[in-house]
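input
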Amino acid sequence: MALPLLSEAADRRLEDLDLGELMEVEVVTASRRAEPLSQVAGAVTVLTEDDIFRSGATTIPEALRLAAGVHVAQTDTDKWAVGIRGFNGLLSSKHLVLLDGRPVSSPSLGGVFWGSSGVPLSIVKRIEVVRGPWTSLWGSDSFTGVINVVTKSAAETQGGRSVTTAGTTGFGETLILGESMGEAGHYRVYADGSYKTGNWLTSDTGQRGSSNWKQGRTGFRVDWPNAFTDALSLQGEISGARIDDGAAGTPHVHDPRSKNSYTGFGQFTWDRATGLDAGISLRTSYSREQEAIGDLTGTFNTADLEVQYAAGQAGIHLLTLGAGTRYAWDEFSQGHRVSIARNDASSFESNAFIQDKITILPGSLFFIAGSKFDLFDSGTLEIQPTARLLHTRPDSEIWMAVSRAVRADTRWQRGGSYTLRDHGVEYTVIAPNNLGTEEMISYEAGYRCDISSDLRLDLSLYVNEYNRLTRLEFDHVNRTARFENTLRGTAYGMETLADWRAAQWLTLRPSLCLINQRIHSRDEPPKGDSMPEKGTQGELKIQALTTPWEGVGFDLLAAYTDSPTDPLVDGFFSLDIHASWRCTDTLLLEIIGRNLTGPHQQFSPLRVGPSLDLRMTWDF
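output
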């Protein structure tokens, strides 16, 4: 039995739905329980399987370009800087990234290695992006938001699929096979390999970007439903990569070299339904990763366990609560230009959360209150509460929220030592005296409405008050720098997006995001990984989706993006195109063009040039 081609299945779904029905897509991340988007008191974007397909994305960061308020830049062949609401950097530590509920953000470094963290897009069902602080549910890692990548169940990938990509960037192949197992069980296995030349990245200074990126992965998922109450799932993956690291795409000064990396994880989940809208869930996972920052190589291990209880409606109350632990340990091999204090270290954290959705007026007015309690390895207990108000009407929703969020310092900030270049001068980063948690009080409001059956508007406003943010303090005499909690300020932001079905064959999705950051520091602008910048920055995007003939699609994404973290880096225009043709029920051809406006810098010294790839999907 062959897998149904995505475009065919998606077209059948979308043709029969108006925009209001489309907004009833379920969201899990915003409340830790499945609920329609119209019931979420926050800023949420859900990238569906069809959205990802129509974007022509070949990686998760490329798909995230569609989300308003998410800053995405490719800084090297295997590196992306991804941030939310004013923070962006190679090791951006202010947002949480989940893969089927499993955190992939590094506890030691705080950021995400996007080149090695991910799964084939062919098995991704949706990506939920919740913007703003959701620390009351997800803890201090979710300072500015959460990105949750949700993959398809094994039952949704029955049959065989081959996805082949080739073009100016290199080539890749993905194979997926799904079968049934017993009366109700299903499994999926997959293998993925790719080679990227890196020749579409250039530099004005003569520095070269990374090249010859070879990557391979294999993984599986097994799902067992048990009667009507239980569902068990086991999944895992192993991947490895090798690349000639050119050093130009990273802020840490080091010599070019070849490097190897690998990742692996296993995860088990158990869900038991105890009522129509109630249940208990358990998730536990182990992951191991070897990565490099410059010429510093580290091996990171993380084991975690969490239990959650979602109660059924009890009068006016809808209660959700849970608890969890995370144990992380690492080991480093010191480099000549990049090093870290202590070759190995470990940390143990525990947490608990509780949230209650209180019905004030049945069906129209709700008050949501909750808090997360994070106990860090240092013994510090942080309480991160939120209060939200949601008013729903048949064709619109209004919501407001106030939240307190903290972000703990990372091992990299406490002990990382490396050389960076600022205004042509090299400085050595040394260990700080003492670092505390960063703090933010956030005020948010939003409005979503169906202007007509073909036009929907989504508006979000926020004010973030920052205190004790970390920044690099420079000693110009000794040519050293260290992290200190000396940054404070206020950010005023707006995110607006529309979904307009202008014709049966044309859908337009424009979005505009503006942020004015009033950052108070000493004499110099703030510097460091993922630092906000003074002034006003913006992002303007428009996506046009067309279906000129049956089985044929032509899609376009044009965007202008400012750097939210560096005033010396110019904003850039980008133009991506995607054309698709469903030749038969089992064969789909696509042409993907990226950065067609010409080479431009994306928040790094490297210029990202145009590329053109052909992708063929064959179901068997």
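quick obs: The radius of gyration is 23 Å.
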